[in-house]
Write a structure and sequence with these properties.
By secondary structure, the chain is α+β, with helices and mostly antiparallel strands. It is built from four helices and four strands, in the order βααββαβα. It has a four-stranded antiparallel beta sheet.
């Protein structure tokens, strides 16, 4: 599976429902599992982003559904990036001229 990192920022609605965030995250992880997505972890962070989630998905299309669905719920916005594992990065580097 491919790795992804989602950087999340609470919306105004998300800030109003901040005490519900742990339960929302728990429910989201259960829904992702049903889609074949493995959540590596979710961290609350200081700075530019409020939450960072790391997950493995079967493909980019599934990851896009995860990102769009997460943002559509209105609690936070996301910026999701593809993350290469050490092995994947080594394979990329080996292809360099």
């Amino acid at each position: 599976m491919a790795g992804y990192i989602a950087y999340c920022t609470f919306t105004q609605e998300g800030l109003k429902n901040l005490k519900k965030a742990p339960e929302i995250i728990k429910q989201a992880k259960a829904n992702l599992e049903k889609m074949g997505v493995k959540t590596v972890g979710v961290w609350a962070t200081f700075g530019q982003y409020d939450l960072v989630a790391v997950f493995d998905a079967p493909d980019d299309y599934t990851a896009a559904v995860v990102a769009l669905n997460s943002s559509a719920r209105g609690q936070w916005t996301t910026q999701t990036v593809r993350a290469l594992s050490e092995d994947e990065f080594a394979q990329v580097v080996q292809r360099l001229p």
